[in-house]
Every structure is written in structure tokens, then in C-alpha cells.
Amino acid sequence: MEKQQKSVRTSRNQLPIAKKEDVDYNAEFADDNDRIASERASEADQRQES
Questions:
Q1: Computed over its alpha carbons, how large is the radius of gyration of the chain?
Q2: Distance from C-alpha of 50 to C-alpha of 48, rounded to nearest angstrom
Q3: What do you get for the CA distance between the two ends of the chain, in Å?
Q4: What does the alpha-carbon distance between residue 24 and residue 18 come to, in Å, rounded to a whole number?
Q5: CA atoms 15, 21, 24, 29: torsion sign
Q6: Dist. CA 44–CA 35, nearest whole Å
Q7: pLDDT by residue (tens digit) across 1-47?
Q8: Segments in the chain forming alpha helices (H)
Q9: Could you give the angle at the alpha carbon of 30 between the alpha carbons of 37 and 28, nearest 5°?
Q10: pTM for the full model?
């Protein structure tokens, strides 16, 4: 059991590293995503109230 858990952990560490361009791109749209998410959340709240 111990050996199986270790193999999962090592394979998880081998994910591709995000390039700097990807990070900049995500940061550029993070504020828009937050605003859209909060708008959708408030819409869902209004739907539940009615």
C-alpha cells in the first residue's frame, strides 16, 4: 500500500510546468473571471430566493 501511494505522488510531480506566457495570460483575465463568477453567483442567489 505504501509503495502505491508513493508512485501516485511522483507521477503528480511530473505535470508540465506552466510557461511564463501562460501565467501572464491568466493574470490578465483573472479580474474579468472574478467579476463574471460573482455576477453568476448573485444570479443564482436571486433564483433561489424567488
A1: 19
A2: 6
A3: 51
A4: 10
A5: negative
A6: 14
A7: 555 555 555 556 666 666 666 666 666 677 777 888 889 999 989 88
A8: 2-12, 20-49
A9: 145
A10: 0.35
